[in-house]
What we know:
Layout: H1 8-11, H2 20-28, E1 33-43, E2 46-52, E3 57-60, E4 64-73, E5 80-91, E6 94-105, E7 113-115, E8 127-128, E9 150-151, E10 164-169, E11 177-182, E12 187-193, E13 196-197, E14 200-201, E15 203-209, E16 214-221, E17 227-230, E18 233-236, E19 242-244, E20 249-260, H3 264-274, H4 290-304, E21 306-308, E22 313-315, E23 328-329, H5 340-344, H6 348-361, E24 374-376, E25 379-381, E26 394-396, H7 397-416, H8 425-445, E27 451-453, E28 459-461, H9 469-481, H10 484-501, H11 520-537, H12 540-554, H13 569-572, E29 581-582, E30 590-591, H14 600-609, H15 612-624, H16 670-681, E31 686-689, E32 695-697, E33 702-709, E34 712-718, E35 725-732, E36 751-754, E37 759-764, E38 770-772
Parallel strand pairs: 8-9, 31-35
Antiparallel strand pairs: 1-2, 1-6, 3-4, 4-5, 5-20, 6-16, 6-19, 7-11, 10-15, 11-12, 12-20, 13-14, 15-16, 17-18, 21-22, 23-24, 24-25, 26-27, 27-28, 29-30, 31-32, 33-34, 34-37, 35-36, 37-38
Helix pairs in contact: 3-12, 4-16, 7-8, 7-9, 8-9, 8-10, 9-10, 9-11, 10-11, 11-12, 11-14, 14-15
Amino acid sequence: xxxxxxxxxxxxxxxxxxxxxxxxxxxxxxxxxxxxxxxxxxxxxxxxxxxxxxxxxxxxxxxxxxxxxxxxxxxxxxxxxxxxxxxxxxxxxxxxxxxxxxxxxxxxxxxxxxxxxxxxxxxxxxxxxxxxxxxxxxxxxxxxxxxxxxxxxxxxxxxxxxxxxxxxxxxxxxxxxxxxxxxxxxxxxxxxxxxxxxxxxxxxxxxxxxxxxxxxxxxxxxxxxxxxxxxxxxxxxxxxxxxxxxxxxxxxxxxxxxxxxxxxxxxxxxxxxxxxxxxxxxxxxxxxxxxxxxxxxxxxxxxxxxxxxxxxxxxxxxxxxxxxxxxxxxxxxxxxxxxxxxxxxxxxxxxxxxxxxxxxxxxxxxxxxxxxxxxxxxxxxxxxxxxxxxxxxxxxxxxxxxxxxxxxxxxxxxxxxxxxxxxxxxxxxxxxxxxxxxxxxxxxxxxxxxxxxxxxxxxxxxxxxxxxxxxxxxxxxxxxxxxxxxxxxxxxxxxxxxxxxxxxxxxxxxxxxxxxxxxxxxxxxxxxxxxxxxxxxxxxxxxxxxxxxxxxxxxxxxxxxxxxxxxxxxxxxxxxxxxxxxxxxxxxxxxxxxxxxxxxxxxxxxxxxxxxxxxxxxxxxxxxxxxxxxxxxxxxxxxxxxxxxxxxxxxxxxxxxxxxxxxxxxxxxxxxxxxxxxxxxxxxxxxxxxxxxxxxxxxxxxxxxxxxxxxxxxxxxxxxxxxxxxxxxxxxxxxxxxxxxxxxxxxxxxxxxxxxxxxxxxxxxxxxxxxxx
Length: 773
């Protein structure tokens, strides 16, 4: 009989006759864990029977014989195993079956924090309310001042001491990964696999039994869920296994980590480090330079995103819409954010529109100094959905922070570009009133909460990380207006969100319609804010905290090039999903970028630390955002105008199998168009350190250093696209990289013109000046 070998070289198991589980135990012994392969039989989409392998063989009903073996590749790192499980049906036939590997842990403690990137944070062990979309907590009894984090009906482990499970496919995660952190053992476990096998996407199951003190992490091929997640609900899945014939086989690749982690930030740093360890480097496709892409979108906005009814004039997404959502939303999904890229690339018309739009904001400011949710032709609306007309003064606290943060930067842009005379002095009165309102709210409640009554200043819904951007806003306001109270509250809030949320494996509640589910927006805005605190104060503690927030944020970013269906919109253009950013554990789609930031906090962290992971993450996001912009050469969404961007980068089937890789016909979402603009305007096309080997190319061009001399660095730049490129080049020395970048540094970067299919050489001196073009 052929013999199959199980990790003999790694586990040191020289005793014949050991079971497969025993052979894996030495590697996972510090976690009381072991792994065992299985054959699974299904009744439709329901698991009917599990058959464990015994000495690499499974016999079923005396007629079906399965065999399994495993290859181990030496990693050279203690605590890391790269495994390939091979399964084959040796004899017989089996219908509706699959295979898998179960990693089971004994002496399990429910204080262990379970994570799956973009799907599960701290096991999603939060209070859950069964509220249909769009969810909001209307019952006052459910939103007491000391309310716990509260989420919708998403896959989660139980907060009660009872058995529970989570079922997913690999496509429900930004990285095909299951992991947990054990505070009591100070250990971490990470399990990586590939998106799919020839059977289709693989499946993930997390199963916990507190009574038995066990937990299991299962990878199955193919993935078969009994229930699948749709918006705020679980429904019967359409998954199915396959019929196996004699000789059929499949291989499942895994990479497993068992490592020391004395705290959660160390655990998340490891997640950040290994997220591409199995999938490897992703591919970048050069489609259209940043400069040309920005022109296409801005031209689209000039033509279609302006309302002028004779009385009201403002930038908005849908000027002809009857819905307030199509008009001015303050901060989040609206003004001044939509005006920001227009201030970076101003024209006389754009400046006039910016001024008019910011003047409209004064009409949306409540007595407390905080901002209403929406403004439509003079009428104000609340953020509380079914009650938006009855209780109009209820708004997300995040809105005020974004108004303050982005307006201060727009003022700076206008002043630096010679439009300072256009700034209305009343803007500063409005912004100081907003900053005072945030300070008053903080002093009253000791936090910013999530939703607030902007007239009375009373909290409507507490908790969550929704107010994270208020930290950066107050820090900038303190510097602008010289008021130390703003900085004091900013730092106090930074510490609160770090200790209360981040160190518990949670950031959430950013978007209006997810209750307080974990989400990418709160993670990104916390990373942005902590980075701003570091640059303004120079205190290393904020840099360390910003690094942790950035590591958590990285878990929301797709780390590999997902295989879209060939006939889908994204499959048709060969889109690379790497760098798209998942929305939340409730809204299970990825999206073109960071809502609603440029990601330049990653450039700032790269400069401050030299850590190449920030550079790579930024390139994934900024470079790949271009592919989601509809142009004549890159048509996406039937009937979509050039410059349009849709929100959806669907990897999962949460909106049905037909939604995977497809975008809505004719969709033009100004929020995501603004995300694309900020990503390519606030970040350099090329970043170079003139006295080190650091060269980061974000734009859709190629660049390499030809030589370094006393005169400077000779750089060769090639434009492989069909469009002319005007490339922003940011060059500095290593010493200079230790200085804060601050806001709107993009205005200072010199531009290099490179024609379509052209290759040029430029000489850059040590001060970043371009000497020869």
